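Morning F.,

Quick status update on the modeling queue. The single chain you submitted on Monday has been processed. Sequence for confirmation:
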Amino acid sequence: MSVQTFVLENGEWVARTVSTFELMNQKISEEPKTPTSAQPRPPFHAVLTRTVVDSPIIRWVLPVQLRSARRNDVALISDHSVQICELGHDRQLKDIVKKNDFGSRIRNAVVMGSPQYSRKASEPAEDSGHVKTEDLEHPLLPPQLLILALERGVLVFLFLQKDGAGNWTWVSSTHKVPGKRLVYPGFHMAIDPSSTFLVLACPEDIFVVYRLEQMSVLEAKRSEPRPSFAPITGKVSRNVEGIIHKIEFLHPTQGHTSQVILLIILVQPEVSRLAVLEWNSWIGLKQTLKKDIKGYRLDEEYRMPLLVVPLKVRNAFLVVTERITATCSDILAGPPVFIQFGLASRDSTELHLGTREPLWTAWTRPIRHPPYHAKKDVIYLAREDGLINLLECGDESEIETSVSMGSVDCNIDTAFASLFHLFADVLVTGGDSGPGAVWNVEARQSLQRIGSIANWSPTVDFAMTNDLMNGTPRKQSANPGAVAPSSSGGEVPLRPDKVFACSGRGITGAIVEFRYGVQARIGLDLTYSSNIRHCWAVSNLGGSDDGFYLLLALLDGSTVLHLSSDLSEASEKDNDTVPYDLSSTTLAAQETSGAIVQVTVNYITIVTPSGYYQNLISDVIKDYVAVVADAAVWQDTVALAVHSGSTFKIVLLRIRDFQISLQHVFDVQGEVTCLAIQTYCGILFVVAGLQQGDDEPTLALYPTQPEHQCVAPNILKSDKDLIPPAFTAGIPVDKTSLGALTSIVCAREEVSGSQVVAMGTKNGYLVTTSIDNARPGDLCLKQHRFGASPCYVFSGEGVEGSDAVLVCCDAELAILRTAGIQRVWPTDGDRPSMPCPPINSVAPLHRQLLEYGKSTTILIAGPRIMITDLEHRPKPVPRYFPVGGSPVNIMYSSRLEALVTVVSKDGLPSLHFLDPVTGCDLSQPLGRRRVNGSYEYSDVDYIAGLGNADTRAVCMATWTYRYAGISGNWIVLALRRKQDESLLLIISAESENIPSQTGMSRRIRFWTKFDRKIRAGPISAVATDESGVFLCVGQDVQYHIIEDNKFKVLSRHELPSPASCMRVVDKRLHAFTTKHSLVVLDYKRHDELGYKEMARLHTDAISRNGLHSIEVGSPPRAITVLSDPMCGIHGLWAPPDPRFPLRLIFQAELQASVRRFARGFTRPPWVSDTYEPRFGCIDSGLAGSDILGLAIDGSIQHFSFLDQRAWRLLRFIQNMALVSSIIYTHPAAADSSDEEDQQNHYHEVDWYEPPYDDSGLKRQVDGDVLQRCLDRRALEKLFSKPLAMDRLRELLDEMDKEDVLLYLGEAPFQDDSYFELAYCILSYYLSPVL
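Structure tokens below.
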């Protein structure tokens, strides 16, 4: 017997037919000759991988009261995290807290305990009437616990409680599962209705039953002086004959609360059996499980059911197979008797993508009053294509009602649940394809969609708004302020690249834009007749109308809008119906002590419940030629910036008994550009921004009390005071480039109690300083570049604490907190493709709408008024462009400024051009034909070559053609046909401006310029250079050029396996094959006769399955990063000498396989402005750019490359975190069952710091672990032992090439300085990428 295979001979893969004897004895060929010269040493590269966007796939939705009986919580559980949300009175899900530090994949989840929902709006939770209100809100133990089974064999019990700062924190208890016998623990998991027993099983032949402690006992132990939390009291394991297909607890007979019934379906060769175990909860487990488990033989049609649903009546359960639904009752009486019934089913919906009938995938039980379940049970069944069926089962008959509830517009997998609400059922649906949703189900009403759950999986391709992956430099803007100088000599764009991906399948398919930050949900969106400068929300003092007022500052006046309390009505008030000055622009307004103070350009108005008082400013200050430029109000103090003649002055006014008096006048040098009033060191000051000609801006403080001196008249003293954030030694700051101060906001840090002053500047900078009351002279100033236009700051009063500052610049909104800066993304649930509106002003609204929470905020965007609810924590905020089909390829064309995507609609491929800003489809496909020597164009549905059901798009690329005096900018599209045929399309496209009344300002006309049929085999990859096109046809790489308007194959080369992607790098072709790693070809070499041929330069000595690749760095340190289907990442280096094979320099393992790599400038401007390679970071190629990878599960990974010093330090920190319970719920060192082994494992030096590994197998740093260390400020606890701290100092001394330690303190350096440097390094590597 012989086989044909590829072997590596002399650095090339050669096809050979060998015998099995040769194959087994490894005598396929002679050993390749080793070059006489020594192999060059490869450069050192390690890789730091981190998740910047988590996978959106939700596996389970579980209603669970983890906080108290007053909370209506739900757990959204994915593979690696648990997100707790609360269902509000408005039926919207609001994020509460997230946990993702399990260190292992979540394999299963159940809820322990019984819920205690209130049946009436004014009624307390059941069985809790004797409990105090504060005990209901903050109990020692909530009504329920969440139980998770982790992949590495750990059970985790979770609930939530508040810490001293009022934040929700996790309380957990873990239990190790015996992994030697239980393979894949948690594959099956179920809990009995009384929450007394938990069963855990694997798909093999063994299960384990755990006895759980009663909730009342657990709560009593939590109240002891030394609280404990150990839910498991015992366990028994049992072997069975066959593979466990299903295992569930059935509900006991009515009134027999101690009865436990366990149902097991065992699959054996050619037969399946149903076994039932029954016992009383007070009997020992070992005695019960000693019984033989034979079971009853099941008929073939019930052999492997899809679902087994325990019912609450008659010990019954529901069985759902591919074609049959049936019930089985009284299982304890003898062999099972199945009674089939029909579902009120419908035909497949548009969401079904398979060729067979859709399957029923999930079920949920709506929450009813407990006595209801004594005689009846209700179940919702869900089908994968979105159909939902309602079943009612009685205690005297089988299925009483089967009603189709209709279909929902999303696929349903295992994520399906019914949540409690006083007046309706609320269903949460989700799947692994497309977004999920929240539905309201009222009696005798159709399903009503009331919310969405983001999900952009599956994702098959993604792109950024640049042409870097096509080898084209980034197109710079004509606006000189659109780029900022980089410390490495290049330019960094202030507007980051956008990231788009192909999302979903079928009618839910869309192009999704990845955005990350704080979501602002728009509840009310109004449009006024003119642009609005600013807005204030004030109460309706003494008015008869319900609701509140919005005082709007316009360009040449003011106006007042009235809004009802429920936001259902809005109206503009007439001038004579409101007590405000509407004739001039409002500069400041504040509501305090039962009165409202309005300051306009001309008047100061005081409004009270009994009337109003209006004073002309010129009369008050006795200056009738003065012009008020700015104003500030604080309780009874008013400050005015007045321009009189050629000078500015600050006028201080006081309000006493609704009378305004002149308090003091401060003469200033220069121009007053902004004003604020704030307490500093216990004294109330007027804070002013001053500008003197072209000199540096000045921040001055003027006391409001005459007995105090004017302190710190110039806080911005010298350049050394103003440093970039996180000790970034980057661009020297020239404060004259900041521009004048535009606005000032003062906030208080909750943790330190110090004062934070935030200042916006004319040239787009945010300047912040932290003033400590204990050390008022110790100032630390920082600057952040936000954009090119003026930057304005606003108070974030009420937005998650008192330290928030909102920043507007370049029509974009961001929020500054102690934890950092995040973008704010306004979203509208009814318009998922809505672009971010150009925000120019912000105002708080929580005082007028207390029932909506403290984060209610007004956003102003020109004439638009948006009332929004700001989320507390940053998260992905995707934006969807529906395309009506399955998008399969995407790229960005900077020439057309459009996204180019191929969409399959009903199996027909079509090409589309989308505007990345508006999401509009700009496509105008044209047919072209030659008539009398010229071309005629006509509108068509599909260009030539598309619109055929037998074709499927494979890959797409841009072609910038420059050859023989001919130039062109084309799109190359490769399609695969049946019978291993392919079609190559060369497409021309051009942008055309159209009249604005059509709704679009432009459209893109495109047509097929060339097409070529390829009959030699299927095309798997495409690449281009200036002269031709590279095609991988089967295993043959062909280089096609155009001669006489025809394609000609100039050269070719046979690969060992088909290429998954190809790219031209430094005039060499990199072909990444599906089975044989990377092949580097020289396609410009000439032979003796002058003909071009492709010569193989480098190959990999190891066969690696490939998905995608990207080049990093520049020669001679350039490397190629490859991804494979087994979640691996490989870094390969090509030696300068082609006689040597590729060298592996690092290898990493991720949670999911990377499907595509891309490079771009994605960092926000306040990060990219000062970001440069430092602290051992190796430049990835283009200055300021980053490399992202799109994983199969929809997550996005970021890759940073480290030198040896950085790798040793960061890996050292990671290794310390892996064995610490501070970072992980169940640390790695605790996996060992032997306590002595744990101690040896923990103190082993190699565990802390891996030795130098020339193979590259250990050169990975997990950035997700480092992120937890940074978020929790955990380094002090991780390195509390002297030996570990000594090593940390050594590694930090090696890293401190910028003398940061000298900046932090004088030698000898204290531990605090080392920790601060370590946090600085972590902050650098983990800075925001999106």
